Amino acid sequence: MKRLIIIAVLLCTTVSFAQLITSGPLTPTQVVDSNRLNDLTRLRFSKQDEVENVVKGSIYLFEDWENSSVIEVDSRKYLLNSVNYNILADQFQFKVSKDSIFVFDNTIIGEIKLNNRKFKQFYFGLEDGDQFCEVLFEGKNSSLLKKHGVKFDQAQPNPLMLKDISDKYVKTAKYYLIDNNSKTITSVKLKKKSLAAIFKGKSGDIDSYVKNNKLSFKKENDLMKIFKYYNSL
């Protein structure tokens, strides 16, 4: 009897799998069901077992996987939930189950919006190659980029201190300005002096705009407004 039950389960599994394989290709803007993994083959992924993190902090952009995404592949867009960005590996990953994730092939992603935040790949030279950056502002002539990073901060134990000291991951960020025509990428620091060289002859207009609107060059949201105004001049 037990053997018959096992056979029946195997038959059901086989039939279900066959139905998945013949269910047809994923269509644009269709929400992907994690139970229809064959729909994802167009996105080209590889399976990876999730590794338990024993270090404090996270290598992921978001603390959980309850994130919605729109992935553009070959001018087609696909909706997919349970996606996160692995900053350390520079990869977008899709969590299928509690201990299993899929890693998307970077070479086929045109752009991806994760919780309405846009990410695209940009070329940083022979040594660094293509890397994903968050597009904070996209203008006609130039765009403002944010390169997320993460560093490993090794604990320095002190026997005189009673509090818990552990290794941890610390998130970092670098900002860049890309010329949309020449594709030249320039490093940008959130400082007035650093940005003055970029604004060149328009520095006076920028200073007046910042002062009148009580903005700060050191705040990311304000910087996006400043670059929007800069591109309008």
Please provide a brief summary of the model.
By secondary structure, the chain is α+β, with helices and mostly antiparallel strands. It has four helices and twelve strands; from the N terminus they run H-E-E-E-E-E-E-E-E-E-E-E-E-H-H-H. Strand 7 (111-114) and strand 8 (117-123) form a beta hairpin.
Could you please describe the fold and organization of this structure?
With about 230 residues, this protein is an alpha+beta fold. Helix content is about 20%, strand content about 35%. It contains 4 helices and 12 strands, in the order H-E-E-E-E-E-E-E-E-E-E-E-E-H-H-H. Strands 3-2-7-8-9-10-11-12 form an 8-stranded antiparallel beta sheet. The longest helix has 20 residues, at about 1-20.
Topology diagram in text:
Elements: H1 2-21, E1 45-49, E2 68-73, E3 76-81, E4 83-86, E5 91-97, E6 100-104, E7 111-114, E8 117-123, E9 130-138, E10 142-153, E11 168-179, E12 185-188, H2 192-199, H3 203-212, H4 220-232
Antiparallel strand pairs: 1-6, 2-3, 2-7, 4-5, 5-6, 7-8, 8-9, 9-10, 10-11, 11-12
What is the beta-strand fraction?
25-35%
What is the general shape?
A: globular
Radius of gyration: 23 Å
Quaternary state, please?
single chain
Give the helix tally: 4
Cα distance spanning the termini: 80 Å
What average pLDDT do the residues reach? 77
